[in-house]
Design goal:
alpha+beta, single chain, about 30% helix, four-stranded mixed sheet, 13 strands, paralog of FGE (formylglycine-generating enzyme)
Length: about 400
């Protein structure tokens, strides 16, 4: 991003974050104590603190704006369970702190064209984008009203299912980010390295609600947010109950649930390498459709549709082999455990990847409907424990 683009992205990321929380009251800003979410008043303060730490303090060497900032907001030192008990600033104080940090960071992004400044400003933007998505699923976890996100919106039709597999030939594929192609990548994407991929068949689209319903009817195992009302399957969408959209991808399923479905259906999850080959092709595209950044025609991203859409939507975003929606709509579980690539070297934000390599996190790929488009590319790796169902995750399958 150029300096003027960085400035716009800083403002946009903050607007989106506040869109997700400003309509909630003070009680909701603290919220119930759960192991899978943060108190909102802590989380948004943490986002501002992170930006201050890396842009103003680390890159520029400035003094902290709050003497208690590290003690309150350093997620690597402040245990999750204690965040509700901290002497957090008030709502108005938190918002003033966020504004102060953002104003100073925007001044930096406009004035300096320095690679180090550029890197850390982008890090803070992407970090804020990820927390914005986390706040979207926090609201759904609590069954609060859907967020009032300001977007231009898109027309959502009924495009139907997209059954069948595509054939992907075997070969040598270079898994990971290509050094020097992007100005910013996370350390867990570094660097592209050869892997041998055997020929395989992968579904053209993620598993739909209708397909998953057959599994539910056979096993009695309902996913998160599904309920039966008068014999009909419905889905709890934030604070509203709606009839299940049959051709939308199943969402809010864990890796364990996805694996169980595959065993029932005689299928399997793709490996991380298979997923990236199917998305990129052997010519290593940045995005499934090519090297141009995502548009609303390519993918369901940026919360434009305010939820999932049919799996047959967005044909302009097809991959070289004909897979659809490999970016957007739902994150997709893979069968690969999160681990470093060969020659891994930790980046300055050391807490991002390395602490999770020794834990049972599984890799997800592709992004979901509220994921910011600027965050994604085919090599981007997400990771969560296999039991998590609150994130915007679904899956596609491979033939065994």
């Amino acid at each position: 991003m150029e300096p003027h683009t960085l400035d716009a992205a800083l403002a946009d990321a903050r607007k989106r974050l506040l869109d997700l929380v400003l309509d909630l009251d003070d009680e909701q800003w603290l919220g119930p104590r759960l192991p899978i979410v943060n108190p909102i008043r802590w989380e948004i303060g943490h986002v501002a603190w992170f930006q201050e730490k890396w842009v103003l303090r680390h890159a520029l060497g400035r003094e902290p704006l709050r003497a208690d900032g590290d003690a309150l907001y350093d997620s690597s030192r402040v245990a999750h369970a204690t965040r509700w008990d901290l002497p957090l600033p008030t709502r108005s104080e938190t918002l003033r702190y966020m504004t102060d940090v953002l104003t100073r960071s925007r001044e930096v992004s406009r004035r300096l064209d320095d690679p180090q400044i550029h890197y850390f400003v982008m890090l803070s933007i992407f970090h804020e984008d990820m927390h914005g998505e986390a706040l979207a699923y926090t609201r759904r976890t609590h069954r609060w009203p859907a967020p009032r996100i300001s977007t231009e919106g898109v027309a959502v039709g009924s495009e139907g299912p997209l059954p069948g597999d595509v054939e992907v030939p075997g070969g040598t594929y270079h898994l990971g980010a290509i050094e020097g192609r992007d100005r910013f990548v996370f350390d867990n994407e570094k660097w592209a390295h050869p892997v041998e991929v055997a020929p395989f068949r992968i579904a053209r689209a993620p598993v739909t609600n209708a397909e998953y319903r057959a599994y539910v009817e056979a096993t009695g195992r309902l996913p998160l947010h599904w309920v039966q009302v008068d014999g009909r399957f419905c889905e709890q969408r934030y604070d509203a109950l709606a009839e299940l959209a049959p051709h939308h991808p199943v969402i809010h399923v864990s890796h364990d649930e996805a694996t169980a479905y595959c065993a029932w259906a005689g299928r399997r999850l793709p490996t991380e390498a298979e997923w990236e080959v199917a998305a990129s092709g052997y010519d290593k595209r940045r995005f499934p459709w090519g090297d141009d950044p995502p548009t609303p025609a390519h993918a369901n991203l940026d919360a434009r549709a305010r939820g999932t859409v049919d799996v047959a939507a967005h044909p302009a975003g097809d991959s070289p082999f004909g897979c659809r929606q490999m970016l957007g709509n739902v994150w997709e579980w893979t069968s690969t455990r999160f681990a470093p690539y060969p020659g891994f070297t930790v980046d300055p934000y050391a807490e991002y990847s390395a602490p999770w390599f020794a834990t049972p996190h599984m890799v997800l790929r592709g992004g979901a409907w509220p994921t910011r488009a600027r965050l994604l590319r085919n090599t981007w790796r997400n990771f969560y424990p296999p039991h998590r169902r609150d994130v915007f995750a679904g899956f596609r399958t491979c033939a065994t």
